[in-house]
Amino acid sequence: MSDPSEMIAWLDGRIASTKTWLETHGPGTKRPWPQMDIEDKETNLARYEEIRVAYVKALERRNAG
Q1: How many other β-carbons are positioned within 10 Å of the β-carbon of residue 26?
Q2: Can you give the pLDDT at residue 31?
Q3: For a Cys staple, 37 with which of 7, 8, 26, 33, CB 3.0–4.6 Å?
Q4: What rounded mean pLDDT belongs to the chain?
Q5: Using CA atoms, how far apart are residues 27 and 23, in angstroms rounded to an integer?
Q6: 26-55 confidence digits (pLDDT tens)
């Protein structure tokens, strides 16, 4: 299993990268990418954030007990 701090750092990187992509290529930009690509990135962002929250909660439970 990966070190928890490395996993959280990786997730934070994916989240930041996806947010940057959406800011530069998403809706409201000068030349947005196709809607399907934007929706895929939005879905990925939601999943990364959900996984990060679940991972941190699991770590907290493991460290508490």
Answers
A1: 19
A2: 92
A3: 33
A4: 95
A5: 8
A6: 999 999 999 999 999 999 999 999 999 999
Task: Return the amino acid letter for 63.
Answer: N
Q: Are 4 and 59 in contact (CB under 8 A)?
A: yes
Which residues have C-beta within 8 Å of that of residue 55, sequence separation ≥ 6? 4, 7, 8, 11
String of DSSP letters for 3-60: -HHHHHHHHHHHHHHHHHHHHHHSTTSSSPPPHHHHHHHHHHHHHHHHHHHHHHHHHH
Identity of the amino acid at 48: Y
Rounded CA separation 18/24 (Å): 10
Amino acid at 52: R
pTM of the complete model: 0.89
Question: Distance between CA 45 and CA 16 in Å, rounded?
Answer: 9
